[in-house]
Protein backbone atom coordinates (compact mmCIF):
# COMPACT_ATOMS: atom_id res chain seq x y z
CA UNK A 1 0.00 0.00 0.00
CA UNK A 2 1.52 3.32 -1.09
CA UNK A 3 1.28 6.47 1.04
CA UNK A 4 -0.11 9.55 -0.69
CA UNK A 5 -0.65 13.04 0.72
CA UNK A 6 -0.57 13.74 4.45
CA UNK A 7 -4.12 14.10 5.76
CA UNK A 8 -3.29 14.96 9.36
CA UNK A 9 0.04 15.83 10.88
CA UNK A 10 -0.06 15.58 14.63
CA UNK A 11 3.09 15.32 16.64
CA UNK A 12 2.88 11.67 17.59
CA UNK A 13 0.64 10.39 14.78
CA UNK A 14 0.68 11.22 11.09
CA UNK A 15 -2.14 10.14 8.79
CA UNK A 16 -1.72 9.54 5.05
CA UNK A 17 -4.20 8.82 2.28
CA UNK A 18 -3.53 5.33 0.91
CA UNK A 19 -3.45 4.71 -2.84
CA UNK A 20 -6.82 3.03 -2.49
CA UNK A 21 -9.58 5.54 -1.55
CA UNK A 22 -10.98 3.14 1.04
CA UNK A 23 -8.03 3.30 3.43
CA UNK A 24 -5.77 5.62 5.36
CA UNK A 25 -2.36 4.84 6.81
CA UNK A 26 -1.57 5.95 10.32
CA UNK A 27 2.09 6.36 11.18
CA UNK A 28 3.17 6.49 14.81
CA UNK A 29 6.22 8.70 15.27
CA UNK A 30 8.73 8.65 18.12
CA UNK A 31 7.63 12.15 19.17
CA UNK A 32 5.74 12.93 22.32
CA UNK A 33 4.11 16.25 23.16
CA UNK A 34 2.01 17.73 25.93
CA UNK A 35 0.50 21.12 26.79
CA UNK A 36 -0.61 21.72 23.18
CA UNK A 37 2.85 21.06 21.77
CA UNK A 38 4.68 23.41 24.15
CA UNK A 39 6.68 20.51 25.61
CA UNK A 40 8.02 18.00 23.09
CA UNK A 41 10.65 15.27 22.86
CA UNK A 42 11.59 12.19 20.89
CA UNK A 43 11.51 8.80 22.63
CA UNK A 44 13.47 6.18 20.73
CA UNK A 45 11.30 3.24 19.66
CA UNK A 46 8.05 4.81 20.86
CA UNK A 47 6.36 4.74 17.44
CA UNK A 48 6.97 1.02 17.17
CA UNK A 49 5.54 0.26 20.63
CA UNK A 50 2.46 2.37 19.87
CA UNK A 51 1.86 0.54 16.57
CA UNK A 52 2.34 -2.83 18.28
CA UNK A 53 -0.13 -1.87 21.00
CA UNK A 54 -2.63 -0.52 18.44
CA UNK A 55 -2.37 -3.83 16.59
CA UNK A 56 -2.76 -6.08 19.65
CA UNK A 57 -5.69 -4.11 21.06
CA UNK A 58 -7.28 -3.58 17.64
CA UNK A 59 -7.29 -7.34 17.00
CA UNK A 60 -8.41 -8.14 20.54
CA UNK A 61 -11.33 -5.69 20.46
CA UNK A 62 -12.36 -7.06 17.07
CA UNK A 63 -12.59 -10.57 18.53
CA UNK A 64 -14.88 -9.08 21.19
CA UNK A 65 -17.22 -7.58 18.58
CA UNK A 66 -16.06 -3.96 18.66
CA UNK A 67 -16.21 -2.32 15.24
CA UNK A 68 -13.26 -0.04 14.59
CA UNK A 69 -11.48 1.50 11.66
CA UNK A 70 -8.30 -0.51 12.43
CA UNK A 71 -7.56 -3.11 9.73
CA UNK A 72 -3.98 -4.35 10.25
CA UNK A 73 -0.41 -3.38 11.04
CA UNK A 74 1.55 -2.89 7.83
CA UNK A 75 5.03 -1.98 9.08
CA UNK A 76 6.88 -1.58 12.36
CA UNK A 77 5.23 1.79 13.04
CA UNK A 78 2.25 1.96 10.66
CA UNK A 79 -1.28 0.62 10.69
CA UNK A 80 -3.85 0.46 7.91
CA UNK A 81 -7.28 1.85 8.73
CA UNK A 82 -10.61 2.16 6.94
CA UNK A 83 -11.26 5.67 5.74
CA UNK A 84 -14.11 7.22 7.73
CA UNK A 85 -15.82 10.55 7.91
CA UNK A 86 -14.47 11.82 11.20
CA UNK A 87 -17.02 12.97 13.78
CA UNK A 88 -15.44 15.94 15.64
CA UNK A 89 -16.24 14.54 19.08
CA UNK A 90 -14.19 12.65 21.65
CA UNK A 91 -15.52 10.62 24.51
CA UNK A 92 -13.27 10.34 27.55
CA UNK A 93 -14.25 7.42 29.75
CA UNK A 94 -13.05 7.68 33.35
CA UNK A 95 -12.85 4.96 35.98
CA UNK A 96 -10.57 6.90 38.32
CA UNK A 97 -10.42 10.69 38.56
CA UNK A 98 -7.26 12.16 37.03
CA UNK A 99 -6.02 14.87 34.70
CA UNK A 100 -8.38 17.58 33.49
CA UNK A 101 -11.33 16.33 35.51
CA UNK A 102 -9.38 16.54 38.76
CA UNK A 103 -8.21 20.06 37.88
CA UNK A 104 -11.58 21.32 36.66
CA UNK A 105 -13.51 20.13 39.71
CA UNK A 106 -10.82 20.58 42.32
CA UNK A 107 -10.72 16.88 43.19
CA UNK A 108 -7.60 14.95 44.08
CA UNK A 109 -6.39 12.47 41.50
CA UNK A 110 -7.09 8.87 42.46
CA UNK A 111 -10.71 9.17 43.60
CA UNK A 112 -12.69 6.12 42.46
CA UNK A 113 -16.31 7.11 41.98
CA UNK A 114 -18.90 4.32 42.11
CA UNK A 115 -19.97 5.07 38.54
CA UNK A 116 -18.13 5.39 35.24
CA UNK A 117 -17.85 8.97 33.98
CA UNK A 118 -18.16 9.90 30.32
CA UNK A 119 -16.97 13.33 29.20
CA UNK A 120 -17.77 14.67 25.75
CA UNK A 121 -15.25 16.98 24.07
CA UNK A 122 -15.51 18.93 20.83
CA UNK A 123 -12.34 18.28 18.77
CA UNK A 124 -11.36 21.79 17.85
CA UNK A 125 -7.69 22.63 18.43
CA UNK A 126 -8.46 26.35 17.85
CA UNK A 127 -10.92 26.26 20.77
CA UNK A 128 -8.60 23.93 22.76
CA UNK A 129 -11.05 21.00 22.55
CA UNK A 130 -13.77 22.28 24.90
CA UNK A 131 -15.86 20.05 27.15
CA UNK A 132 -19.43 20.05 25.82
CA UNK A 133 -22.58 18.02 26.41
CA UNK A 134 -24.91 15.92 24.25
CA UNK A 135 -27.27 18.83 23.57
CA UNK A 136 -24.43 21.00 22.29
CA UNK A 137 -23.26 18.18 20.00
CA UNK A 138 -26.75 17.74 18.56
CA UNK A 139 -27.36 21.51 18.24
CA UNK A 140 -24.08 21.93 16.39
CA UNK A 141 -25.01 19.11 14.01
CA UNK A 142 -22.10 16.80 14.92
CA UNK A 143 -24.31 13.81 15.75
CA UNK A 144 -27.90 12.86 16.53
CA UNK A 145 -28.97 11.63 19.97
CA UNK A 146 -29.17 8.06 18.64
CA UNK A 147 -25.62 8.35 17.26
CA UNK A 148 -24.36 9.67 20.60
CA UNK A 149 -26.02 6.70 22.31
CA UNK A 150 -24.14 4.44 19.92
CA UNK A 151 -20.81 6.15 20.73
CA UNK A 152 -21.35 5.93 24.50
CA UNK A 153 -22.29 2.30 24.08
CA UNK A 154 -19.02 1.56 22.23
CA UNK A 155 -17.04 3.46 24.90
CA UNK A 156 -18.81 1.48 27.65
CA UNK A 157 -18.09 -1.86 25.95
CA UNK A 158 -14.44 -0.99 25.26
CA UNK A 159 -14.07 0.09 28.89
CA UNK A 160 -15.48 -3.19 30.15
CA UNK A 161 -13.28 -5.31 27.91
CA UNK A 162 -10.05 -3.40 28.49
CA UNK A 163 -10.53 -2.86 32.23
CA UNK A 164 -10.75 -6.64 32.66
CA UNK A 165 -7.78 -7.25 30.36
CA UNK A 166 -5.46 -4.76 32.07
CA UNK A 167 -6.65 -5.82 35.51
CA UNK A 168 -5.29 -9.30 34.71
CA UNK A 169 -1.93 -7.62 34.09
CA UNK A 170 -2.11 -5.79 37.44
CA UNK A 171 -2.82 -2.47 35.75
CA UNK A 172 -5.73 -0.09 36.30
CA UNK A 173 -7.24 1.51 33.21
CA UNK A 174 -7.76 4.98 34.69
CA UNK A 175 -9.25 6.73 31.66
CA UNK A 176 -9.08 6.74 27.88
CA UNK A 177 -10.10 8.84 24.94
CA UNK A 178 -12.05 7.47 21.98
CA UNK A 179 -12.78 9.21 18.67
CA UNK A 180 -15.38 8.00 16.20
CA UNK A 181 -15.89 7.96 12.45
CA UNK A 182 -18.64 7.10 10.02
CA UNK A 183 -18.20 4.45 7.34
CA UNK A 184 -19.72 5.11 3.87
CA UNK A 185 -22.75 2.98 4.87
CA UNK A 186 -23.38 5.23 7.89
CA UNK A 187 -22.11 2.82 10.55
CA UNK A 188 -20.26 4.50 13.42
CA UNK A 189 -16.94 2.90 14.36
CA UNK A 190 -14.16 3.60 16.86
CA UNK A 191 -11.60 5.71 15.00
CA UNK A 192 -8.70 6.11 17.40
CA UNK A 193 -6.26 3.77 19.04
CA UNK A 194 -5.85 3.15 22.74
CA UNK A 195 -2.24 3.70 23.68
CA UNK A 196 -0.35 5.22 26.64
CA UNK A 197 -0.62 8.53 24.75
CA UNK A 198 -4.44 8.45 24.79
CA UNK A 199 -5.16 6.55 28.00
CA UNK A 200 -3.90 6.49 31.59
CA UNK A 201 -2.56 3.26 33.06
CA UNK A 202 -1.52 2.90 36.71
CA UNK A 203 0.16 -0.09 38.31
CA UNK A 204 -2.44 -1.45 40.72
CA UNK A 205 0.03 -2.17 43.53
CA UNK A 206 2.43 0.72 43.39
CA UNK A 207 0.34 3.36 41.62
CA UNK A 208 3.25 3.88 39.21
CA UNK A 209 2.17 5.68 36.04
CA UNK A 210 2.80 3.85 32.78
CA UNK A 211 1.55 6.53 30.37
CA UNK A 212 2.11 9.99 28.97
CA UNK A 213 1.75 11.60 32.40
CA UNK A 214 5.36 10.50 33.00
CA UNK A 215 6.37 13.04 30.38
CA UNK A 216 3.94 15.73 31.62
CA UNK A 217 5.29 15.32 35.14
CA UNK A 218 8.99 14.94 34.23
CA UNK A 219 9.13 11.46 35.73
CA UNK A 220 11.50 10.04 33.10
CA UNK A 221 11.77 6.41 31.89
CA UNK A 222 9.00 7.01 29.36
CA UNK A 223 10.20 4.48 26.79
CA UNK A 224 10.80 1.86 29.52
CA UNK A 225 7.33 2.40 30.96
CA UNK A 226 5.63 2.17 27.56
CA UNK A 227 7.56 -1.04 26.82
CA UNK A 228 6.69 -2.51 30.22
CA UNK A 229 3.00 -1.67 29.72
CA UNK A 230 3.07 -3.35 26.32
CA UNK A 231 4.84 -6.48 27.62
CA UNK A 232 2.48 -6.85 30.55
CA UNK A 233 -0.54 -6.42 28.27
CA UNK A 234 0.87 -8.94 25.81
CA UNK A 235 1.52 -11.51 28.52
CA UNK A 236 -2.18 -11.59 29.44
CA UNK A 237 -3.32 -11.63 25.82
CA UNK A 238 -1.56 -14.93 25.14
N1 LIG B 1 -6.45 12.63 25.87
C1 LIG B 1 -6.03 12.48 24.57
N2 LIG B 1 -5.99 13.58 23.75
C2 LIG B 1 -6.37 14.81 24.17
C3 LIG B 1 -6.79 14.97 25.49
C4 LIG B 1 -6.82 13.85 26.33
O1 LIG B 1 -5.69 11.37 24.15
O2 LIG B 1 -6.32 15.76 23.37
C5 LIG B 1 -6.50 11.47 26.77
C6 LIG B 1 -5.50 11.60 27.93
O3 LIG B 1 -4.25 11.01 27.60
C7 LIG B 1 -6.19 10.87 29.05
C8 LIG B 1 -7.67 11.03 28.74
O4 LIG B 1 -7.77 11.41 27.38
O5 LIG B 1 -5.89 9.49 29.05
C9 LIG B 1 -8.31 12.08 29.62
O6 LIG B 1 -7.61 13.28 29.48
P1 LIG B 1 -7.98 14.54 30.34
O7 LIG B 1 -9.32 15.05 29.93
O8 LIG B 1 -7.81 14.20 31.78
O9 LIG B 1 -6.97 15.65 29.89
P2 LIG B 1 -5.41 15.78 30.15
O10 LIG B 1 -5.22 15.78 31.63
O11 LIG B 1 -4.81 14.60 29.50
O12 LIG B 1 -5.07 17.07 29.51
Explain what the structure shows:
By secondary structure, the protein is an alpha+beta fold. It is about 30% helix and about 30% strand. The chain is built from 6 helices and 13 strands. The protein has helices at about 45-65, 100-105, 135-140, 145-170, 215, 220-235, and strands spanning about 5-10, 15-20, 25-30, 30-35, 40, 70-75, 80, 85-95, 115-120, 130, 170-180, 190, 200-205. The strands form 3 sheets. Strands 8, 9, 10, 11, 12 and 13 form a 6-stranded antiparallel sheet that branches. A 5-stranded antiparallel sheet has the order 1-2-3-7-6, with helices on one face. The chain has a two-stranded antiparallel ribbon with strand order 4-5. The model has no long low-confidence stretch (mean pLDDT about 95). The structure holds uridine-5'-diphosphate (UDP). Uridine-5'-diphosphate binds near residues 98, 101, 177 and 200.
Amino acid sequence: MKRNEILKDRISVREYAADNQKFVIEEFTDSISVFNGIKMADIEGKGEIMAAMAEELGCYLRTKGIEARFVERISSNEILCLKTEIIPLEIVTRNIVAGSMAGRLGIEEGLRPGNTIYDLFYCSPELENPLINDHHAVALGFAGYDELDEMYSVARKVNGILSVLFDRAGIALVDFRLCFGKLPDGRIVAASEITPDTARFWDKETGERLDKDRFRMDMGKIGDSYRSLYQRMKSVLQ
